[in-house]
Amino acid sequence: xxxxxxxxxxxxxxxxxxxxxxxxxxxxxxxxxxxxxxxxxxxxxxxxxxxxxxxxxxxxxxxxxxxxxxxxxxxxxxxxxxxxxxxxxxxxxxxxxxxxxxxxxxxxxxxxxxxxxxxxxxxxxxxxxxxxxxxxxxxxxxxxxxxxxxxxxxxxxxxxxxxxxxxxxxxxxxxxxxxxxxxxxxxxxxxxxxxxxxxxxxxxxxxxxxxxxxxxxxxxxxxxxxxxxxxxxxxxxxxxxxxxxxxxxxxxxxxxxxxxxxxxxxxxxxxxxxxxxxxxxxxxxxxxxxxxxxxxxxxxxxxxxxxxxxxxxxxxxxxxxxxxxxxxxxxxxxxxxxxxxxxxxxxxxxxxxxxxxxxxxxxxxxxxxxxxxxxxxxxxxxxxxxxxxxxxxxxxxxxxxxxxxxxxxxxxxxxxxxxxxxxxxxxxxxxxxxxxxxxxxxxxxxxxxxxxxxxxxxxxxxxxxxxxxxxxxxxxxxxxxxxxxxxxxxxx
Amino acid sequence: xxxxxxxxxxxxxxxxxxxxxxxxxxxxxxxxxxxxxxxxxxxxxxxxxxxxxxxxxxxxxxxxxxxxxxxxxxxxxxxxxxxxxxxxxxxxxxxxxxxxxxxxxxxxxxxxxxxxxxxxxxxxxxxxxxxxxxxxxxxxxxxxxxxxxxxxxxxxxxxxxxxxxxxxxxxxxxxxxxxxxxxxxxxxxxxxxxxxxxxxxxxxxxxxxxxxxxxxxxxxxxxxxxxxxxxxxxxxxxxxxxxxxxxxxxxxxxxxxxxxxxxxxxxxxxxxxxxxxxxxxxxxxxxxxxxxxxxxxxxxxxxxxxxxxxxxxxx
Lengths: 492, 315
Description:
The structure holds two protein chains of two kinds.
Chain A lengths: L9 E2 L8 E2 L10 E4 L2 E4 L4 E4 L28 E3 L16 E7 L2 E12 L2 E8 L10 E4 L2 E10 L2 E7 L1 H5 L3 H15 L4 E5 L4 E4 L6 E2 L2 E2 L8 H12 L5 E5 L4 E3 L4 H6 L7 E2 L2 E4 L2 E3 L20 E2 L11 E6 L5 E6 L5 E4 L3 H12 L6 E9 L1 H5 L5 H9 L4 E4 L2 E2 L1 E2 L5 E6 L9 E3 L3 E11 H6 L8 E2 H6 L5 E4 L18
Parallel strand pairs in A: 5-34, 7-33, 17-23
Antiparallel strand pairs in A: 1-2, 3-4, 5-6, 7-8, 8-32, 9-12, 9-26, 10-11, 10-13, 11-12, 13-14, 14-15, 15-16, 17-18, 18-21, 19-22, 20-21, 23-24, 24-25, 26-30, 27-28, 27-32, 29-30, 31-32
Chain B lengths: L5 E4 L6 E5 L2 E8 L2 H24 L1 H4 L13 H10 L14 H16 L4 E6 L2 E6 L4 E7 L7 E8 L6 E5 L13 E6 L2 H14 L8 E5 H4 L9 E6 L4 H20 L5 E6 L2 E4 L38
Antiparallel strand pairs in B: 1-2, 2-3, 3-4, 4-5, 5-8, 6-7, 8-9, 9-12, 10-11, 12-13
């Protein structure tokens, strides 16, 4: 039988079942898996491993054999994350793991716990100029309200999802669906959302968004006016006028300052919409999912008839969207009506360059939560001192080893990029609330000074001995090492 | 390299964790301290050879059970075969459908033979063998999604009930399912019987040829699966209420039949937040969107489904 299996099937010999495991799957025990053709052990409680080279996120099975002498990873090269550490909530007990390790001659303490966050949500940045829905409108998952459309950013639409009002303030199914949506987004899974009076989107952290079934490829390089400014020189002489269609500011080469400076001749073009300054127009159409985030599919609809006083037969006109994804080339006939023609070679390059300058469109998911009093009490007998220590940068906060941005002001309210955290770092409780890992790292002296549970501090070596429930990962390449003493003012 | 079996007490100092290959048992016994330690010792002594015994007959245990099949020799394997035999003329089933329950049962019997216990359970990944002395009872919680554990119901089993085995099967679980049930929990006289029945009922909760259900040949995922080329469920899209009702009805029909044949006492079927309970469960789960089940006049089983943390959006 064995010979008919694909070549990257491995046979696990960890027990007499001797499973054949296909690439990307786990054996009958769910403890051993075939990762890239290698048999690896996959257990919970994740230890980040600094020394491991990138690209081998799981420890190969064979390295676990024999007595591990601690030489492969010295203490400070391994950081215990809170993923799978468990939580003591709602008891004011010391956090499940308080680990000490020596870093550059200073005893460091890391307190790891899985926090239960009722006050939490995600901020979604969706790189698209397409209109997803009016600001403040509800965002729904499975028909339940889970968030709203918030202030758009440059080239991106922003959604704010979750929060205590959706989690526990609405109906039970609203809370449940909100919790599921947040959990899936934080764990990198794809989620389908609809926006009232707007679009349907499919989003996953670090992946291109899909708007109304259409995958977004690129972000715009700038608004229509900025695009004119950037490419005016490349168009000069090859075309008589260019319109860059944009829901925000549509630009017109012949009227734009950049065109004027080059001496581009007036063309008698008239654009629908509200003129802001010469060559820059607001509201040429309604927002939508057509050209440049407008609702137009035929760009000629934004042009009024050419003025005979300025325009001339055979005038060459390029219309292009801010991402270069849509473009059309026209020449005026004897009656000054635009007739679509094939895009000349000389212009292909500039359209291509607009596209090239548009960065890949992604969805980014930031988890945002606040560490409540009982979570802080797991770290110290006097919770406010932890807040103070975090604010004074004596204590570093990480989530699954990923750096967290701490909001100024009261409390410990933080944001973290979920793609920098290990896979499936989040869980939930039926409250409903999210369970997220959180680690506080500080000097042992400082820990004692803020009333830490010093009696519960365990040396790193001890924690590592409990290999049974642990899984070691290499640290995310872009994350600063959590145990490295602070150098700059901020790291996020 | 063969990893040795793991035997340890859990941090609470009460429960024992036995692990060997794909077998993970959580064991707890209550009674006099000497009795409990004698039971635990007997359990561990029996446990260490179980996996090797099973693997010795694995090719046979992976074949479809038939009336005239060659019978396995070892005791756990025989329990497995006995549990699936009642189904072998009606559907494809291999003794592996009862492996978890049979292992739990074997360990439980070893413990109760070694000592007098008030009560004890052996939980093999949700397939549970129970021992209850007079006036003892267990509260059992039911979970439909192992990846998002939350109770969809709970029940109490007392010494008065004849239930000594509980098992749950569904496509989200560790073993493959031919059906689309998130979870089917079965109460039966022993764990192996419950395990086999849960598998059969979960397979029956189905919508054949529905395009929203992703299926794949078992061997494509797990090359040595006992299910061979049979299509197993990999994903189930959101179903309409009519579809959910139809699929659950298919399962309820089979479950009712099994109860009439005396193979099970009761079953709770869960699909996309809708729950159907065979009437002897006595109360309905709060999540049940339908109203199809009459209240029994004299419940055979004292069982109560409690409200879960979530409720039905249509309530």
